[in-house]
């Protein structure tokens, strides 16, 4: 058992956290959230998503969000870009980094991005090429790594295959998404074991949703294996619009509390992060799903 000495947190609250909110959230609120997250010491914030506004209306103000950022020094502001159209728009807005997203499930791929897994990989190749020309790094996501809402069980070998393809294509990091939060710790370890045969551990991140309350346990399991990049969402906001029943990502506050207890460095100010979590949940009228956040805010 060797924990990494340092973990990099990728805060996905402004994107994954808010993309599924049914009521329109004004751009100012999103920008204030992103500002608070930067002030709390998060160094990587997924700020927007350059997807079709017909598919995900909540992310339609991607340009305004990117242009309105009050940038904190040393913070990477990234955005999702499923195709060249999205990438070009994101580049025009001065994005620092982008992410493409594939799935280990055919059915989910079709529901989420309207094409097969193979077609999505073909579509990403020119995105990576164009991003390289623009000197912008590309992160890759694999969804449904521990289960699919349509296909059920997903073979670890299939996850490895898609992760390898994204890595070989030039994604500097591949984030493994338990989109519907059905994973459990041993399953997470086995999946990671399969993926690390093809992609080095230091190129992988864990992106776990907490639908079944397993996300922290799953993170502990993969930290033991050496995962050193964790995606999380302040106050546990979120869910994927194309994964019915999926709840939010693991809460950033809870991850930070866990890392503190394990003596793993992360660079985040937990008090400020918890304050950001209680502020955004009040602002959008949502329950705060971070246990640590609620405990800290009610002291
Ligand atoms: P499509 O309909 O197959 O694409 O959608 P198309 O190329 O035929 O275009 C259709 C329309 O969309 C056209 O407009 C395009 O201009 C427009 P129209 O002529 O009808 O007016 N369009 C765009 N508009 C803005 N930005 C773009 C763009 N591309 C096309 N980039 C597409 C394909 C991928 C666009 C669509 O399926 C889509 O936007 N899907 C978004 C799905 C999504 O955002 N899902 C949530 C994020 S993924 C996630 O949450 C999982 C993750 O967190 C990891 C995990 O948890 O597992 C990352
Ligand atoms: Mg997600």
From TrEMBL:
Signal peptide: none annotated. Pathway: Metabolic intermediate metabolism; (S)-3-hydroxy-3-methylglutaryl-CoA degradation; acetoacetate from (S)-3-hydroxy-3-methylglutaryl-CoA: step 1/1. This is hydroxymethylglutaryl-CoA lyase. The lineage of its organism: Bacteria, Pseudomonadati, Pseudomonadota, Gammaproteobacteria, Oceanospirillales. The keyword Mitochondrion does not apply. Belongs to the HMG-CoA lyase family. Keywords: Lyase, Metal-binding. Residues 7-274 form the Pyruvate carboxyltransferase domain.
């Amino acid at each position: 058992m060797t924990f990494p000495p340092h973990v990099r947190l990728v805060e996905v609250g402004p994107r994954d956290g808010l993309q599924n909110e049914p009521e329109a959230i004004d751009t100012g609120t999103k920008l204030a959230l992103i500002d608070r997250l930067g002030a709390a010491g998060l160094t990587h914030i997924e700020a927007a998503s350059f997807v079709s506004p017909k598919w995900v209306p909540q992310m339609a103000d991607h340009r305004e969000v990117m242009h309105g950022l009050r940038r904190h020094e040393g913070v990477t502001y990234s955005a999702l870009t499923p195709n060249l159209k999205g990438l070009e728009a994101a580049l025009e807005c001065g994005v620092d980094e982008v992410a493409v997203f594939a799935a280990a499930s055919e059915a989910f791929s079709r529901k989420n991005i309207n094409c097969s897994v193979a077609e999505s990989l073909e579509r990403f190749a020119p995105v990576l090429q164009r991003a390289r020309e623009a000197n912008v790094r590309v992160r890759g996501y694999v969804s449904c790594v521990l289960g699919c809402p349509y296909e059920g069980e997903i073979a670890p070998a299939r996850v490895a295959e898609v992760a390898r393809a994204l890595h070989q294509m030039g994604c500097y990091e591949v984030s493994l998404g338990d989109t519907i939060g059905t994973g459990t710790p041993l399953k997470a370890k086995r999946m990671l074991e399969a993926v690390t045969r093809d992609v080095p551990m230091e190129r992988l991140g864990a992106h776990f949703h907490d639908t079944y309350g397993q996300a922290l346990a799953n993170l502990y399991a993969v930290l033991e294996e050496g995962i050193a990049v964790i995606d999380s969402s302040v106050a546990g906001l979120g869910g994927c619009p194309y994964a019915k029943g999926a709840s939010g990502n693991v809460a950033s506050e809870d991850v930070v509390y866990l890392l503190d207890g394990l003596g793993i460095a992360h660079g985040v100010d937990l008090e400020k992060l918890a304050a950001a979590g209680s502020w955004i949940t009040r602002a959008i009228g949502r329950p705060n799903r971070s246990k640590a956040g609620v405990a800290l805010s009610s002291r």
